[in-house]
Amino acid sequence: MRNGNRSSIIRRLQITEGHLKKVREMVERDVYCIDVLHQLQAVEAALKEIDSLVLNNHLNTCVVDAIKKGNSKEVIDEVMAVFKKSQKNG
Question: In the chain, what are the domains?
Answer without folding.
Answer: 3-89 (1.20.58.1000)
